[in-house]
Amino acid sequence: MNSKLNTNVKILIGESLSIDDLNVLSLLYMPIIGSRAYTLYMTMYSALNRSSNTRVVKQSDITDLFGITLNTLNIERKRLEAIGLLNTYTNDSEFVYLLKAPLSARSFFKDGVLAIYLKNRVGDALFEKLVNIFRLESFDKKGYKNVTELFDNVYKDEITEDLDNIDGYFPDKSINSSIKTGDFKFDYDYFVESLNLTLVQRKNLSAQLQMNIENTAYAYNFNEEDMLVVYHRSFDQTGNFSIVKFQREAKLLKKLKEQEKLNKTTVTGIDSLKVIEPVEVLKTIVPNATSEQYELIERVSAESPFDLGVTNVIIMHVLNKNDKICPSLNYFKKTFETFKSKNINNFDDAIKFVKAQGTYEKKEDNKENKDTKKKETTTSGGSEWLENFKKQFK
Question: At what angle do helices 278-285 and 384-392 cross, to 10 degrees?
């Protein structure tokens, strides 16, 4: 049926929203869907008749309320549909909008696609703050005894008859379905076959793991072979699958694949920082780097909010400042925040910044000698390492 302004719309919802649902909608969904789609959802929810959780309006009522066109309404409606917050049905006379409750915070962060989209929209720092808002303090049961009473020890009424079947449609706090990825094809069966697992091991592969694999493949446009690489690199030292390592390895592989595309273009000198792997930067500056240092740089690359070129400049800058010694991951993260605070988002600005900072550091080191200070200022001072690196890639 064609969408028209005078078309009736029946708005339904299968359950009431909790405070947690509303927080998830405003803090996790809104950065992805936008304020207009979020407001549309909340307005339709607020307009429901609380006695029946149903409301019938015309599409013109919605467009007039928002001051938007019918075309804009359809666009915002589709945003809600695509992210799993709305199911739309139609017949010859009306539309039915079935509002869906959002995922729980736990399910949202476990959903590969939604969590990745949110992180890309808000950046690493704000994403971590959002995670902490919803993170609950865990309770270590060690040393405690469960003394919770059983039902039949308290409620001793004698049950003499069965309950008749109760018909009707009731609110159901079931988990909302995750987003659907349309035409994207990922052969999960082929993926599992390629793992060469035993029958018992295959049965232990959870539905949650399958969803994580398929959603990550969609988000990063990975094929089955790509996901096999990510999966095999996602086990911790005890041999257990780590979802944290899985997500980090997926991001790292994405950056490496992007780099492979850039490598097709031949570059020399300092521009090589735009295409070489971060571990090559480490190898160039610290020829005798340990395996732990290489692993650290891989983690730095995976968790960097910047593109490859800026990430490489930061790695070189940090290694130079610390006498070619790898500091902790947190040190690199603080450097990321420094670059962000100074609005350094591209390669050229990053190069200018480290050169200027190198000059500034040399000025401070030579306050007592004006002639020396002047000389080092004109020769780029602490950024000589940058020129040395440039020579190696001529």
Answer: 110
The ranges assigned to domains in the chain are 8-104, 188-263, 269-392
Mean pLDDT for the chain overall: 78
Cα–Cα distances (Å) from 96 to 88, 199, 214, in that order, read 6, 45, 30
Element (H, E) at 88: strand 86-90
8-state DSSP, 67: T
Residues 389, 324 contacting (CB under 8 angstroms): no
The token duo for 224 is: 């089955």
Nearest CA among 67, 130, 68, 77 for reference residue 100: 77
Enter the pTM of the model: 0.50
Crossing angle of the two packed helices 291-303 and 329-341, in degrees rounded to 10: 30
With residues binned 3-state (H G I as helix, E B as strand, rest as coil), the percentages for the chain, rounded to 5, are 60, 5, 35
For 301-352, the pLDDT digits (tens) are 888 888 888 998 999 889 888 888 888 888 999 999 999 888 888 888 888 8
Architecture of domain 8-104: Orthogonal Bundle (1.10)
Residue 20: phi, psi to the nearest 5?
-60, -40
